[in-house]
Amino acid sequence: MLHEFVTANRAEIIARCRAKISSRPAPRPTDTELEYGVPLFLDQLAETLRLALSPTPDIGDTAAKHGGELLRAGFTIAQVVHDYGGICQAITELALETAAPITTSEFQCLNLCLDVAIAGAVTEYGKLREHEGTERLGFLAHELRNLLNASVLSFDILRTGAVGVGGSTGAVLGRSLAGLRSLIDRELAELRLGAGIHHKETVVVCEFIEDVEVAATMEANARGVQLSVSTVAKDLRVYADRQILVSVVGNLMQNALKFTPKNGNVSLRAYGAQDRVLIDVADECGGLPPGKAEDLFRPFEQRGTDRTGLGLGLAICHRGAVVNGGDLHVVNHPGTGCIFTVDLPRQHDAAR
């Protein structure tokens, strides 16, 4: 009866669970979690419940499979625990309010399914995290080796005096060093985000954009891409972890330059909009296929034919924006390109 009750009242349970998650102070709910996650969690729990009430229950493997699905969808362990719990509460409350003929043993079975689902997800998380961590470390070492080799070879050629620093060999050296710096910045940001280490300070946006422009100009020249940077108002400030913010905008610029073809245009601008500071990075990548924009912020997702990098850049960008009290959005213009926007709360003089 309980499985039938959950199936029949699916929409109401989802609505109640979304309301619970929206009021949760921590971990902060995300749009993906509310729109995509809640139905997924409910369907998984309903399937586990159906198996538990069947003549031959086999819910352990199902729970582990669901854990893998949730990890690949980008959900954290904290979200798994809270969201499964919210769904269980919504089911229980609705059953009591409607006086549904559900037995005590069925409620006990629901709690058992909840425990098994969470335990299975956490266990699978550990396995997959270990595998992905090893794979990611291998990719990182590969990227570092390639960039370092290119730097050493370019330097050796320049040291002979046969070519000038301003030529193509010097450009290779500059591009390789810039790549090393971006890779290290990204890894440091990832480590700080994972460890919860944040050092927030007042960041003057115009000065910050100038720093980003210096690195991006070198990359744009090496790739033959036109870069335009708009003038930024001098009174714009945000309260943020500067290093993480550098990684966020730097990754967006690197992606924009990588996916924009030669002689294409990339633009960077920062501006105020009421109590927000918006940083736009626009490219000419050609746009995204329908339905792909929401996948960009998931770990290990890459677009285009250039597969360099770890596929973690945009996931880190999103997390970095959220940690700084903001968000990251993308607007897709099919056939033209994308505009990524870092949306941050503005720091006013009184707040400072």
What does this molecule look like?
With 352 residues, the chain is an alpha+beta fold. The chain folds into two domains: 2-132, Globin-like (Orthogonal Bundle), CATH 1.10.490.20; 198-345, Heat Shock Protein 90. Helices cover 59% and strands 13% of the residues. It has ten helices and seven strands. The strands form two sheets. The chain has a five-stranded mixed β-sheet with strand order 2-4-5-7-6, with helices on one face. A two-stranded antiparallel sheet has the order 1-3. A hairpin with a 3-residue loop joins strand 6 (327-333) and strand 7.
Gross morphology is elongated
Number of beta-strand segments:
7
Query: Mind telling me the CATH superfamily name of the largest domain?
Result: Histidine kinase-like ATPase, C-terminal domain
Q: Estimate what percentage of residues fall within beta strands.
A: 5-15%
Main attributes of the structure:
2 domains; 7 strands; Globin-like; 352 residues; two-stranded antiparallel sheet; 10 helices; Heat Shock Protein 90; 5-stranded mixed β-sheet; alpha+beta
Question: What's the topology here?
Answer:
Layout: H1 2-8, H2 10-22, H3 31-52, H4 60-72, H5 77-97, H6 104-159, H7 168-195, E1 200-204, H8 205-223, E2 226-229, E3 237-241, H9 242-259, E4 265-273, E5 276-282, H10 313-323, E6 327-333, E7 337-345
Parallel strand pairs: 2-4
Antiparallel strand pairs: 1-3, 4-5, 5-7, 6-7
How do you describe this structure in short?
This protein is α+β, with helices and mostly antiparallel strands and 352 residues long.
